[in-house]
Amino acid sequence: MSLRICILETDVLRPELVDQYQGYGRMFEQLFSRQPIAADFDVYNVVTGVYPTEDQVFDAYLVTGSKADSFGGDPWIEKLKVFLLDRYQRGDKLLGVCFGHQLLALLLGGKTERATQGWGVGTHRYVMNAKAPWMNPQVEELTLLISHQDQVTRLPENATVIASSDFCQFAAYHIGDQVLCFQGHPEFIHDYSRALLELRKESLGDKVYRNGVNSLSEEHQGSTVAEWMMRFIAHKPHTSA
Predict the structure, then answer these.
(1) Range of the domain at 177
(2) Is 6 part of the annotated catalytic residue set?
(3) Does a structural domain hold residue 122?
């Protein structure tokens, strides 16, 4: 039986990228379709106000990345926060990537803000800080493609750090068997990261841009993170009688 996943798309891609990449929802569908656990997906662009109906049932809700600030006051962000808090209180499984990672941390008692470290771009390595049954295959360190200038600076009290680096202390976390979030982008591919770097070249500055481009020669483990996400959704915790 396939998992049913609701993808809450929180961005509209730049016009230069739409033809090739369509949107983050589509990028996640392509990534998850290569995983060993079968799943069906419904994509809703919440920036344009599109949400699932009340009678639709999903195994998990995934919040994508966005060029918007998670701590911003845009009406669509405020509406999304109300929706996600309701899903959380109902006990639904929630996943977040980049903007989604930050928004869920903020919503559940943490803090997000513009990072004093500046932009994080290209391929980034993280130290693993925790293990869980759904983190299979296991890795000694995690490598992901990133593109962010905001960070989680305080986690919710009940969160467990999964991965970190000197640049990004709270790069991944989970809250029990209900919430799983990553600052990095498992759905990105090298070509998309390269296109983003080109579009942001001036705002990044020469040093950050060049380091980002050079780092794209390294492989990333987006597929591993995608498998963790699928196993997290399918995982049924043991309960005492």
Answers:
(1) 3-113+151-187+221-234
(2) no
(3) no
